[in-house]
């Protein structure tokens, strides 16, 4: 079964002015679509053709000869997850379980913001900042390029922020810090984060 480009969970202009329709036209309509098309081409006619996306990622991660397959499969997963991490009129202080765990595990919301921005800003070149649930606790981490916590046994990704330049350049030019501020203050979908925590048994 070939993979298809998932629809965004909102209209392409719904995140403006924080992320513009033009950015989503390119980021979702071109970049994400290209990863899906490349992935389908790489698995067609192979024994991975009918595997789940997560299974393909883990199989490819374990074989250095499958780097191209890993990069495209992981980017399909990462981007699909990222779209759901945002919503119109989102951001700001969290509520529910994630608020409790941020206070317990990460030193409170202000410290979370500082450390999450440090993860995103400290990722040299392209990559991702993540909030993951592992061993009963929240952790902030970062990955380069297409790397993903999906390959980390026992880790459940609950939030990600894309810090590839194509995520923000049309709206913020080279100012990754301004993009990260806007993502945290105006876009995070805390309901989605809480659902991920619930699914992980938190």
UniProtKB/TrEMBL annotation:
Mn(2+) binds at residues 27, 79, 162, 166. GO terms for molecular function: metal ion binding; superoxide dismutase activity. InterPro entries: Mn/Fe_SOD, Mn/Fe_SOD_BS, Mn/Fe_SOD_C, Mn/Fe_SOD_N, Mn/Fe_SOD_N_sf, SOD_C_sf. Residues 94-196 form the Manganese/iron superoxide dismutase C-terminal domain. SUPFAM superfamilies: Fe,Mn superoxide dismutase (SOD), C-terminal domain, Fe,Mn superoxide dismutase (SOD), N-terminal domain. This is Superoxide dismutase. Its EC number is 1.15.1.1. Keywords: Iron, Metal-binding, Oxidoreductase. Destroys radicals which are normally produced within the cells and which are toxic to biological systems. Belongs to the iron/manganese superoxide dismutase family. It catalyses: 2 superoxide + 2 H(+) = H2O2 + O2. Residues 3-87 form the Manganese/iron superoxide dismutase N-terminal domain. The keyword Membrane does not apply. It is an enzyme of class 1 (oxidoreductase).
